[in-house]
Amino acid sequence: MAMTTIYHNPRCGTSRTVLQALQARGIETNIVEYLKTPLSRGELRDLIHNAGLSPREAIRSKEALFDELGLGDPDVNDDQLIDAMAEHPILMNRPFVVTGKGTRLCRPATVLEEIL
After folding, report:
1. Organism's domain of life (predicted)?
2. Which of 34, 81, 39, 37 is CA-nearest to residue 61?
């Protein structure tokens, strides 16, 4: 079975819940704390694409920085959103989980079931 990876923020309740669900099932999981080890622009683009999302669906619009940078403006394009997430990892929504069955933004946590 392919290694499972979670892009995790330990301060996020949903991220902690998803990680606990993986551990409770005994699934060996590679934990990437993306705030400590940010993803490159290309890694972000691939992760978002593989989850079947647009960059706008993958960005954390509730972060104050989202508004400060004017990212809610409809004229901000996908490349600009990815650039913002690469420069400011706190803007990446979480948790993303990658398994042998696919990639999902596990928000809500129950989305995890789709790829287990």
Report:
1. Bacteria
2. 81
* One domain for residues 67 and 99: no
- pLDDT value at position 2? 63
Catalytic site includes residue 12: yes
This prediction's pTM: 0.94
| Count of the separate structural domains present in the chain | 2
SS3 41: helix
Q: 30 pairs with which residues across the strands? A: 5
| Digit-coded pLDDT (tens) for 49-105 | 999 999 999 999 999 999 999 999 999 999 999 999 999 999 999 999 999 999 999
Of 5, 12, 31, 53, the active-site residue reads 12
Question: Which domain covers residue 104, as residue numbers?
Answer: 1-34+94-116
